[in-house]
Amino acid sequence: MEIKDIVSLIQKLGYKEKSKDIFEKKYARDYVISINAKKGTIDYGSEIKRGDLTTSNFEHDENFVVLECVNRLLTKGYRPEDLHLEKRWKVGRGVSGGKADICISKDIDGENKTFLIVECKTWGDEYENEKKKTVSNGGQVFSYFQQETSTQYLCIYASRLNEHDEIEYVNSIIKTVDDEELIEQAKEDEHVKLFSKATNNKGLYEVWKENSACYFHPNGIFDKDVQAYEVDLKPLKKKDLVEFKDDNYGFFHNQFAEILRHNNISDKENAFNKLISLFIAKMVDEQKSDDEILDFQYKEGVDDYFALQDRLQKLYKDGMELYLREDIFYVEEDYVDKTFSKYDNKRDRLRMDLIETIRKLKFYSNNEFAFKEVYNEELFNQNAKVLVEVVKLLQPFQLLYSKKHQMLGNLFELLLNDGFKQSEGQYFTPIPIATFIWHSLPVEKMMENKNNNIPRVIDYSCGSGHFLTEGIDTIIRRNEELKYSNYDSENYWVKDAIYGIEKDNRLARVSKIALFLNGAGNANIIFGDGLEHDKERLGEYETFDILVANPPYSVKAFKQYLKLKYNTFSIIDTISDSSGEIETLFIERINQLVKPTGVAAVILPSTFLTKADSKAYIAARETIIRNFNIKAIVELPGGTFIATDSTTVVLFLEKFDRPPKLEDFYMDTVDNIFEKNIIERECGDDERFGAYLSKIGVAKDVYIRFLNGDDYNDFSEIPYFAMYIEQFNSLSKVKNLIKSPSFVRLSGESKKQKLNLEFYKYVLPIEKEKVYYFSLMFGQMTLVIKGPKAKKEVKEFLGFYWSKRKGDEGLKKQGVGKLVNMEDINDKTKLAYAVHEAFKGHYDVDSDLEKYTQYVQLVDMVEFKKVEFNKIINTKSQKYFQQYEKIFLKNKQPQLLFNKVATLEYGKSLPEIERRNGDVIVVGSNGDIGRHDEALISGPAIIVGRKGSAGKVNYIEKDCYPIDTTYYVKLVDDNVSLEYLYYLLKQMNLEDLAEGIGAPGLNREMVYSIKIPVPDETVQKEIIKACKENDDNILNLENENNILSKQLFDLMEKEIVGYTKDKEQLGIAADLVRGPFGGSLKKSMFVSKGYKVYEQKNAINADLTLGEYFITKEKYEEMQRFAVKEGDILVSCSGTIGKTVIIPKDYEEGIINQALLKITPSTEFRSEFIRYILMSSIMGNTYEGHGTGINNIEKNDLLKEISIPKPSLSEQDIIIAKLKEIEAKIETNKKKIEQGKKSMLKDFTERLKG
User: Fold this and answer.
1) What are the Cα distances from residue 2, in Å, to 6, 37, 59, 89?
2) Which residues have C-beta within 8 Å of that of residue 658, sequence separation ≥ 6?
3) In the prediction, which pLDDT does 418 show?
4) Is the whole model's pTM more than 0.85, yes or no?
5) What is the pLDDT of residue 490?
6) Where do the coiled-coil regions begin and end (predicted)?
7) Which of 127, 163, 352, 1168 would bridge with 158, disulfide CB 3.0–4.6 Å?
8) Is 809:413 a contact under the CB 8 Å cutoff?
9) How far is it, in rounded angstroms, from Cα 196 to Cα 185?
10) Long-range contacts at 328-331 (CB < 8 A, ≥ 24 apart)
11) Are 1157 and 1131 in contact (CB under 8 A)?
12) pLDDT < 50 stretches in the chain
């Protein structure tokens, strides 16, 4: 502190300047403390004891906190002789000394003993950090407590002179006296921990942690109405509650788990339910005014177990009635007295009343706070101990806020994932996904459509309430942008606008709590079935502006349990009793609820779009197409949801406006064409019909002839109709007809007419349906977003991942993600903005997002050129097919569907333990994986990866055994060479069609739908010859690189590992700095431009241009230790040693992140030489010998201790030159290999063109 600030402080404390720079203050009994401002000393007088003079000077800011605290104690009436500053003890194992800032003693059992220890810290970070240390391991105060076991209270204290020129203080008090209830329990249960039984500071800390959940009392020592030497731990008032902060939710989650652990509670689901009950009770309690005493707390020295539980039961009863409209039976504590006073001498009535009440208690009462089963007094006490611990954990925090509270939401999410076992078909939506969906929706457009009023929102399967809370937040944000006036700061508007329906009673409570925690407790949560329609609660059909939901799916045999009173579904007739396709009903429900021009976003299994053999799925897709514009389809990768690795899709829909009702309008049109034969009027200049004909590749005059019923054999040369003819002729019904005696007796012309009639009976309904649905879809542009497959890329795409590491469970941030900016709703660099713009008809996307997106005409995603018209919407491969067609089909070669040339047959399972040694190659998706003595198929064979390395193509010359992760190719067209098909498949990049995460799979039906070029035998042989030559050249280059890599390794062994003249420890040869950990580099610090943050991918790819994170100049200067400079070696810390890259001369200024190690060589070492050392066996041998990896370097300094060779700089230059020469050859060959692969594709396509 500056001397002027010190003088201001001591004068504020009441010190007067008696002579120049000498300040004094006189306390009770004329006790004087003197301060010499010039010398910077504090004289605490003769009666205040001092262990040393550490705090009797101006050297540390903390000393003035001690001075202010001593002043407060003496002013309150504490005697100087009872204060001891800097009292010394030995702590721990006697290795180091410890000193308490202030020890205060009083008469205890006839002796003057320490009863209070105060540890003083400066205001802000130092104070908060000491609290964190105390919570983490007991900190300093428990070390002191170990020495002074008479201590009854510990206190962490801070004060300051604030901006209003007033002295203010904060304190956190720990009670270290055992409660009477616990003392009694300890007599029966040796596992109950007591301060009186603890033998060291760790044990004392464990008692506080276990019995009080690390609870700090906020008052009771320095309050104005508290007398000296009397600590009065006053009950909490509402104004005492503290806001939930970033570092609280991890502590709360871990401490709650610890409470369950040390009380032997294994039923986490029950514990979560009880915690929800406590949340409800606490929310009711927080309705009090600021100065009212809270009921939700354990009142020290006042409460017993019965009093606490009685108050909690009353709060819970009120909460259930208020929030969920449920009556809870509750008997007040004074029930008996009231009953006797009411009945006077009318004993018969009294008897009946008591009998009725006891009956209710026996049969109807459910202990909502029973973490343990309670059926006797002992178990009641055990459970009450748990309850007190949980209440103490929860009581200091504020739960209710007027707006969304992110940290509290994170905690709730974590507790939910721990304690709620998701039932069949339930997958809770992560908050970032809910935010992405809401930021994507045109909420402001919905407001404008309602004349600036609030849109009506529903989630018919609201689960934990994420969609509702994020929706409210988005509506508020959009309202603030548009400056509408129809919103109130207390969010009362949600009562008429926000609706959630949940069938699970527990989740209904969870949703209600989530809404309260986000400042929207007035929103409607309906406990009921989302498929039901209660008009009293929901209003009429088609009245919601926005529907957002993640409905359940794949619930087996749900139909037999579905009991609906007020609603019906047309799709239900397509569902069998054993089916689990409940999601199809929820799709039809969207149409029932959303009004014309309203919007919806719904999460569905990805199979919804592509499942071809389900009548219910087809009917559900028809419902969507008939009623909605599909504005966007977003494929979320596996790993998005904590409970499943399945891929899902989000459909973003906008309902057609009315009138006219488009499904009826186009049905009338199609009826006129196909039934009333008004062809020219309907088809003459109709753009839709022309587009349909173009789609199927049929001329208008030909199609009109088809509609007129011309002889179907006249169309046999037209591929589209030939498809129908082939299918028609293969029908059993047709074959039986031709064989029937009645048909045989017909004349040739009559036979022809009969078959023609049957053909059109079969084909016209299919064509009518195709034209109808094409008309509905025509003109719709859909944004398709497809997430990546690789796990690392998935994390970067989502911006989060799920951690299952013990003690660190839950959703973890991973970079900034591609989907959404949680803070900026209009971030143009996020996919949410692209979807939002698609609703407006704007089709543009940030260049960095192009690899995930494509804009596709909806009709181009639906297959119209097959006989079966099942309305499959194929989003997976549009880019692939567009590119494939451009490369392989823009030629004059004949084309056939793949399954007309070959089939993909399943390999067969052959576990390693069942393989018998032989000469037959066992083939997995990645190639040769072993041997067996029996072949499954004859060679030569093409094997295609089905799972894992899906899409990878291998050619096996000999008989082999493809396992069940593969397909093997079976030719069905003798005109196609197996080798030609192999080289074609190699060029087709089937890997791009693989779906899923972890072990992606290749769907053969998708491959079957691909048309492939089938040139004549001569062209096939030319292609095979050219590809073989290229293959041989690539193989030679790869073999040469293998030899060069061994030469490089051998040379490093000789010149580096074998160098023995002089050695140096790596820690001396270079400065090693691991990237910043913890909160020193967080997402919130990143800016759009500034100083670069170098990442792991820079080292992995040896490319320093990669990266998208930047920090400000101020942050860069603050983190200079992590700044890079020319010659630094950056090492990836993923894996054992990681990849390396050297910072060049023209580098971009910046710092490393936590995933990198920075090595700065001394002047005696070249950077390249250190890099080669990192590549050598010196590193591998060191880590293999110690069983560790680079992630553990910070803990054991192993890397710094490695002994490395120390040649002279000139010797280093010679070694570097030799190694670089070999590396240059390897890089040249790699480029030739890549060029060879491109040449192969070029040769292939040029020969197809002829």
Assistant:
1) 6, 11, 11, 32
2) 596
3) 65
4) no
5) 64
6) 1027-1054
7) 127
8) no
9) 14
10) 328/368, 329/360, 329/364, 329/365, 331/357, 331/360, 331/361
11) yes
12) 92-97, 362-365, 423-425, 684, 1135-1136, 1182-1196
Q: Which of 1115, 1190, 1203, 1195 is nearest to 1156 (CA)?
A: 1190
Q: Give the C-alpha distances (Å, rounded to integers) separating 337 from 332, 333, 954.
A: 10, 9, 87
- Looking at residue 1189, its pLDDT comes to 40
Those residues whose C-beta lies under 8 Å from the C-beta of residue 289, and which sit 6 or more positions away, are 238
Placement of tokens 């089939």 in the chain = 903
pLDDT at 340: 63
- Candidates 1189, 1106, 1216, 1217; CA nearest to 1153 is 1106
863 to each of 277, 407, 720, 725, how far by Cα in Å?
A: 53, 47, 12, 18
Provide the token pair at 982. Answer: 């192999």
DSSP per residue, 466-525? HHHHHHHHHHHHHHHHHT-SS--TT-TTHHHHEEEEESSHHHHHHHHHHHHHTT-TTSEE
pLDDT value at residue 809: 63
Half-sphere exposure of 861 (CA within 13 A, CB side): 27
Please answer whether residues 86 and 100 qualify as being in contact, where contact means their C-beta atoms are separated by less than 8 angstroms: yes
Closest CA to 879 of 855, 899, 862: 855
> Using CA atoms, how far apart are residues 823 and 817, in angstroms rounded to an integer?
13
β-strand pairing of 1091-1094 with 1110-1111: antiparallel
Query: What is residue 714's predicted lDDT score, i.e. its pLDDT?
Result: 93
Q: What pLDDT score was predicted for residue 203?
A: 93
Q: How far apart are CA 445 and CA 598, in angstroms?
A: 10
- The amino acid that residue 908 corresponds to is K
The answer to whether the beta carbons of residues 580 and 607 sit under 8 Å apart is no
156 with 134: CB under 8 angstroms?
yes
Compute, in degrees rounded to 10, the torsion defined by CA atoms 1035, 1041, 1042, 1048: 180
- The whole-number pLDDT of residue 130 equals 92
Which two tokens mark 475? 């509506």
Q: Which domains does the chain have, with CATH numbers?
A: 3-234 (no CATH), 248-394 (no CATH), 425-658+783-852 (3.40.50.150), 664-778 (no CATH), 877-1014 (3.90.220.20), 1062-1206 (3.90.220.20)
What amino acid is encoded at 1205 in this protein? P
- What residue type is assigned to position 2 of the chain? E
How many Cα neighbours within 13 Å face the side chain of 664? Answer: 5
| Nearest one of 26, 5, 19, 83 to 51, comparing CA atoms | 83
* pLDDT recorded at residue 838: 95
Contact between 825 and 478 (Cβ < 8 Å): yes
State the CB neighbour count (10 A cutoff) for residue 343. 16
Are the beta carbons of 215 and 396 closer than 8 angstroms? yes
| Alpha-carbon gap, residue 921 to 960, rounded angstroms | 5
CA 538 – CA 1004 distance, rounded (Å): 45
Measure the CA–CA gap between 691 and 34, rounded to whole angstroms: 97
Amino acid at 676: K
What is the amino acid identity at position 388?
Answer: V
**What was the pLDDT predicted at 713?**
93
Buried residues in 784-798 as b, exposed as e (16+ CB within 10 A): bbbbbbeeeebbbbb
Q: How far apart are CA 1177 and CA 437, in angstroms?
A: 50
Q: DSSP letter string over 128-171?
A: HHHHHHHHHH-HHHHHHHHH-TT--EEEEEEEEE-TTS-EEEEE
pLDDT at residue number 425: 43
Secondary element (H or E) of residue 1205: strand 1203-1205
- State the Cα–Cα distance between residues 341 and 1245, nearest whole angstrom: 100
